[in-house]
Predict the 3D structure of the following.
Amino acid sequence: MLDIRDLQAKVGGGNDILKGINLAVKAGEIHAVMGPNGSGKSTLAQVLAGNPAYEVTGGSATFDGRDLFGMQPEERAQAGLFMAFQYPVEIPGVSNAYFLRSAYNEIRKAHGEEEVDPLEFLDIMERNLALVDMDQSMLQRSVNAGFSGGEKKRNEILQMAVLRPRLAILDETDSGLDIDALRIVAEGVNKLRRPDNATIVVTHYQRLLNHIVPDFVHVLSAGRIVKSGGKELALELEEKGYDWLETPAEAVA
Amino acid sequence: MTAPVLLRDFETFAANGGGSGPSWLLPLRRQAIDRFAALGFPTPKNEDWHFTSVVPIAEGSFRAVPDAPARSVRLGRADVEAFTFGRPDWIRLVFVNGRFDASLSGGATPPTGVTVTDLATAWHEQPDVLERYVGTVADFQRTAFTALNTAFMHDGAAIQIAPNVELETPVHLVFVSTPEAAGTASHVRTLVVAGHQSKATVIESYVSLGGAKGYFTNAVTEAVLGDGATLTHVKLQTESEQAFHVGTLQAHQGRDSHLVSFSYAAGGELARTNVYTRLAGEGCGATLHGLYLLDGQQHVDQQTRIEHASPNTFSREVYKGVLDGSSHGVFNGQVYVRPEAQKTDGKQENNNLLLSAQARVDTKPQLEIFADDVKCTHGATVGRLDELALFYMKSRGIGAEQARKLLTYAFAAGVIEAVGVPEVRAELEALTLRRFTGALAGS
Ligand SMILES: Nc1ncnc2c1ncn2[C@@H]1O[C@H](COP(=O)(O)OP(=O)(O)O)[C@@H](O)[C@H]1O
Ligand SMILES: [Mg+2]
């Protein structure tokens, strides 16, 4: 489904932050990407979603065989890619209902399907709000504006639930959540799991992986994947921290 | 319409009786034209017109023809229906090319204590009230366009609300211009007298039909708010983009009165809206909101002037502008606090959104405070669409163009919420959506 080869990317005019990432994700799989702060996890997520502030300087990525970097961010979303932001963006003046219905309908249109009207959409919302334990009143509030950290993260999962992506990339959706919110988020992800979709869980901590059990764990350090393994790798990281990993820079030096 | 031509036009007009009316009217007109002759059209050296050149108006050939017979424009009710907010039952006066059209007017009959009369009729039916107020609030000593209006004013409206009367039904004045208006100027004049403790809503729509262009609207509304009165005034300026418009609302407020003004400006090649009020009575205040949406080559200027002249007066002001194409917007917000106006509480905000590299805006808050115990704040911003918000929307599948439009609408929506009349608010939402969101409208 997703095939990343030797991906290099930078942001803000400096040196490359991603220094050659290789990662293949197949339908039905859950991958965890772990790594210390500043290792490039968010950069990877943002580059895959198409944030124009980031520049791909080398390598390639295909999504269902299509050249991902040749697609606009909205085309990626319409093709089934979804990235839950580590820091969800506030949009004052645009209601969650209007925003999400627009997104939902744009994706339907891209698939040659009919748009749904506000009433039909309300039905869809009602079903999904329960999944993330959110109240209907949030629909009239502006997107993420004045939301608490936990509300923002749950809103990302709500969007994911409504848009039903084929590939979801969750960028530290667990950070800053208390144990209840963490469980809600994890349950949401698990309920949405299907044989034909896949998830990349980006996380700093192992605890989320108690709830979302990954098939593969990758450790990102200084812009490279330095170690890959099964779910037991996450436990090992939890125990030993990240320090024992040799950084690629040291390896080269 | 160079000044000498106007002065000659005035002499012809005066020789023919100056549009008739009570005996005091012609001397008032003459005073005003003399003042206009002395002032001339404002130049950019005039601080009030620093960012706006009126050369296209001054050198245009717009003739004031107040006593010419109305041109044979035949509009039916269906033609103006689109401008009536779906409320044919409001109290409505319709003017076509500056002339009152009784056949298009109507709606509800004003209740006891309220009179709504076209101005030409009011000169004869209510000469005393008009003599008492006309020209006393709208300042023709200082403002050339008001002087010009006062010299040539012909049609318009006289609205009186008796003390303690709360008028539920809005009074709606519709000024329609048609292609026949080309080359002419209409100096429409409205007087609103809101008695003490009264409450009323007056809406003015300046609209065009059938590709009207090349005309000049020079409108003046003067309002007197008695003690404790609340006057809501809404102006919708959606003139042709090839027309010229100068519109002034000038108010005088008594003790504990409240002026609530909303000014929407989306039309005109060159347009200026003035909202001036004098907070004369203790404890009174003004809430002024505005929204200007410009595109193409438009130049649209808004000036507000709030004069705090008594203690404990307040003002709340939010104007927002969205500018696309090569348009040029201007906002000048003047707040004067007289020495006697202690405990003044003033807040002013002007936010602008530039959608293109060529669009520009000049924003000039202007506070002059001569009292020492006051609370006055102001803020002005000029920004562009938030790139991160755009990306966030796109990352959810919303196309680039839709994302831009949605964010733009959201920016404007914040001030539209301030409109208290639901039908007008809905119309403004629709107008704004149409202007910036095309396909999203109605969804
Ligand atoms: N907008 C930016 N401009 C410059 N440097 C950035 C920017 N965003 C991130 N970086 C740098 O890129 C590196 C990787 O950041 P990031 O991908 O956010 O790491 P992670 O998500 O793993 O914590 C860090 O060194 C960070 O300082
Ligand atoms: Mg990060």
